Amino acid sequence: MESINHTLFLWLNAPEHPNAMVLTLATFFAEHLIWVVPLLIGIGWLRGSEALSKAMLVSTASGLLGLLINQAIGLAWLYPRPFMISLGHTLIPHVADSSFPSDHLTLWWAVAFSLSLQRGPRIVGQALATLGIPIAWARIYLGVHFPFDMIGAATVATFSAWLTLRESRWYLEPSYRLATKIHHRLFGKLIALGWVRE
């Protein structure tokens, strides 16, 4: 399996002298697109209905659970990144921590899959899930992940989305009440002006 992982990585990894436009696009997908997740959750919370706000809380829980699972996997099994074993070309800096699964893609897909499973934001979730594919490619192309890291991320994200939605009855209402109190305290003036929801 490891030889397949390495072979697929070398096939997808950037050449020694990559095309500048492809490199720019890959860097955008690999490093900058992730900011869509907190932005989307923030807008959904500030401007959406109660149902949408609760959907954002569930998707946030999914993302956090996914990252927690990844930390446990990384502590139990340190799988080196390609540059740690001098394989391929690495075009962006990254800390030398465990490669499997990809935290970056786990967070993205855990949120996307969670939204996809919920009635209101399903289309947004499906769009985000599709955007995860070029993110996965970019992380491999730039040399910081193996292809199997992305399969691991998809597995963890799927489990996280399923579990946090299934068990939402245990945490959703209290976390919604707490988040609403914080929301009113932070955005009281903007609520009065009608710029954000009450």
Automatic annotation (TrEMBL):
Cite the InterPro entries for this sequence. Answer: PAP2/HPO, PAP2/HPO_sf, UPP_Pase
Q: Name one GO cellular component term.
A: plasma membrane
Could you list this entry's UniProt keywords, alphabetically sorted.
Membrane, Transmembrane, Transmembrane helix
A molecular function (GO) term: undecaprenyl-diphosphatase activity
Q: Which domain of life is it from?
A: Bacteria
Query: Which parts of the chain span the membrane according to its record?
Result: 20-43, 55-79
**Keyword Transmembrane included in the entry's annotation:** yes
Phosphatidic acid phosphatase type 2/haloperoxidase domain spans which residues? Answer: 54-165
Q: What is this protein called?
A: Undecaprenyl-diphosphatase
